[in-house]
């Protein structure tokens, strides 16, 4: 990430030295590249967050199913105990 950004900045500085770009253009180019990199990083973090949230929700659903099954077994067991009494 940093290497790519530094290469981009180096290229912009070389263009400026050759007279191809003004210092304002170099600064703008650098800001554009930083913006692109930050957006990519934000999208990556958002994707990771959504994946973790989905895993959490799936786990919660599995746990709810297990609780329901256990409650049904307990209820069946209690009914069976009452019929034996």
How does the major sheet shape up? none
What is the distance, rounded to the nearest whole angstrom, between the alpha carbons of the first and last residues? 73 Å
N-to-C SSE string, H for helix and E for strand: HH
The amount of helix comes to: over 70%
Report the C-alpha radius of gyration, rounded. 30 Å
| Number of helical segments with 4 or more residues | 2
What is the count of structural domains?
1
DSSP strand tally:
0
- Uncertain segments are none
Global structural class:
mainly alpha
The chain-level mean pLDDT equals 86
Describe the global form: rod-shaped
Explained architecture:
With 85 residues, the protein is mostly helical. It has one domain (2-84). It is 93% helix and 0% strand. It contains two helices and no strands. The chain has helices spanning 2-18, 23-84. Helix 1 runs antiparallel to helix 2.
Summarize the topology.
Layout: H1 2-18, H2 23-84
Short description:
With 85 residues, the chain is an all-alpha fold. It has helices at residues 2-18, 23-84.
Quick tags:
85 residues, mainly alpha
